[in-house]
Amino acid sequence: TADIVQLCVAVIIIGFACLGNMFIVLVFLLEYRRSQTLQPYELIVTLLAICNLVSEFFFTLWLVVYLLNLCTYFGEVVYQVTEFIIVFLPKSVIWLTAWLCFVYCVKIIKVNQSLFKRLKQRISLAVNCMITVTSSVCLLLSFPMVTHIKFRPNSTKICRQYHVVDQELSILYATVLSLLTSLLPLILMLVSSLGIVIFLCQHSRNMGKNVTPSSTSHSDAHISVAIMLICLIALFIACASTILCINITFASGQLDTVLVITLTNIIYSAGSPLILIIGMVKLRHSFGEEVYKINKEIQGGKQRKEVGTEVIKT
C-alpha cells in the first residue's frame, strides 16, 4: 500500500512537471521558428526543459518497475538503460542550471576587462562548448552506474537488491559524482548570482543620481532575473543537500536511498520550470496570454450557452 501511495504521489508531481516543461519547450520552439535563432540563455532553458521531460518519462518507468517489483519482466538491460538515463539527465540539468546562472551573470554585469568583453561577444560559442564539455563529463560519470547492476535470482527482493557493491569503489564513485555534478555547479551558481547581486546593488546607487524610465525598466528586469536565479539555487540546495548525504550511504547498499534520490530529482524537475516561467519575461508573458485566451474561450462558451438557452425559451 505504501508503495502504491508513493507511486501515485510521484506520478502526480511528474504530471505537473511535464506540463511546465512542455510549455517551455513549446514557447521557445515557436520563438525559434519565428526568428530562426535563440539567445544563449533561451537555448539553455530549452535544453533544460527537454532533459527534464525525457528524465520524467524514465522516472515513471523506473518507479513502476521498482515499486511494483516488475523487474523480472523487463530484464537487466532495461534496468541498466533506465538507471543510466536517470543519472545522466538530472546531472546534466544541474550543470545547465549552473551555466544559466553564468550566462545571465555575463549578460548583466558590465566589466571593463578585455577577457570579459571577448567572452560577452562570443557567448553563443562559449555556451555551445560549455554544454558539450559538461554533457560529456556527465556521460562518462554515468557509465559506472551500469556496471553496478546485476540481478540476484535467489533474492526475495530482486527489484530492490540489484546492485553489486564494492565498498571502496562505491565511496570513491559517490565522492567524485558529488564533487563534479553537485558541488562544482553549486559553486558556479553561487559565484554568478553573487556577482549579479553585487552589480545590481552598485547599479541601484548610481541610478539614484540619474533616474530614467529605460534604466528603471532594465533594472527591474535584472532584479527579476536575480530573484529567479536565487530561487533556482535555493531549490537546488534543498534537493542537493538530500542527495549529497544519500550518495555517501549508497556505498553501504541501503537501496531505499535510491528511491529518495529519485523522488528528490522529480521534485527539482517539477519546481525548476515553475520558477523559470515566473522569472523569465518571455515565458511569463506567454503564459499570461495563454491564460487570457483560455479565460476568453470559457467566457465565450458561457455566453453562447446563455444565448442558446434564451432562444430555446422563446
From TrEMBL:
Coiled coil: none annotated. It is a multi-pass membrane protein. Its main location: membrane. Gene3D superfamilies: Rhodopsin 7-helix transmembrane proteins. One of its GO terms (cellular component) is membrane. One of its GO terms (molecular function) is G protein-coupled receptor activity. It holds the Pfam family TAS2R. Residues 20-239 form the G-protein coupled receptors family 1 profile domain. The chain crosses the membrane at residues 6-29, 41-64, 84-105, 125-146, 171-200, 221-251, 257-278. Belongs to the G-protein coupled receptor T2R family. This is Taste receptor type 2. It comes from Latimeria chalumnae. The lineage of its organism: Eukaryota, Metazoa, Chordata, Craniata, Vertebrata.
